[in-house]
Design brief:
The chain is α/β, with parallel strands linked by helices. It contains 5 helices and 8 strands. It has a 5-stranded mixed β-sheet.
Length: 206
């Protein structure tokens, strides 16, 4: 991609390396222009902390805390409770829903404590696709309805996954974990206290 600036042209590659078509054009104005470009890029970089929670019987929640990568300021946070689900689905839902909050093309680093979620989106899906979404044991891949649309979303961003250990003192991971655990605790308490209503009602506690 080329950016035209008075008297010279900058060629900027995705790898972040900068090459000038005219070395003599590297002057004070060009340095200022580069800094502006770097600043603009930083504004489209985010750190996303995701987590999911599940408590039997059928009480789940997912959540995500989104921060601007350069300043570490909180951009937004999203949380939701889901009835009759699983822990893995909540972990993956957090990733997909967080991405939907971000500008397409952003640099996104996703911090998750679920190895299953990270491996689904970075390793296993290649083999599943080649095998028509059938596992090595001959069974259909679980949670395909969540995995496929999230993989499509991931192609719209420059993403990197980072594994963090749960309950290890990571401040942002702990914040998200506390919120989703709080939601599922309220859901479980209501469901156990209202066994009859629980068959047909699904109130919100988030």
């Amino acid at each position: 991609m080329s950016y035209i600036y008075p008297k010279f042209t900058l060629v900027i590659y995705v790898s972040n390396s900068l090459i000038f078509t005219d070395p003599s054009a590297f002057c004070r104005d060009s340095i200022h222009y580069i800094e502006q470009l770097k600043e603009a890029r930083m504004l489209n970089s985010y750190h996303v902390y995701t987590d999911g929670s599940f408590r039997a019987p059928g009480c789940g929640a997912w959540g995500a805390l989104i921060l601007e990568a350069h300043t570490q300021e909180v951009v937004t946070e999203i949380f939701e409770g889901v009835w009759d689900t699983t822990n893995n689905r909540m972990e993956m839902s957090a990733v997909g829903n967080a991405l939907r909050c971000l500008p397409v093309g952003s640099d996104v680093t996703i911090f998750a404590d679920s190895r299953y979620t990270i491996d689904c989106f970075t390793k296993w899906h290649w083999g599943w696709k080649k095998n028509d979404w059938i596992t090595l044991t001959g069974k259909p891949v679980s949670n395909r309805d969540l995995i496929e649309p999230t993989l499509d979303l991931l192609t719209l961003y420059k993403t990197k996954f980072v594994h963090v250990y749960g309950h290890s003192g990571n401040t942002y991971n702990e914040i998200v974990d506390t919120r989703v655990q709080g939601i599922t605790a309220k859901m479980k308490s209501w469901r156990l206290s209202n066994p009859t209503k629980a068959l047909t009602e699904h109130p919100r506690f988030w």
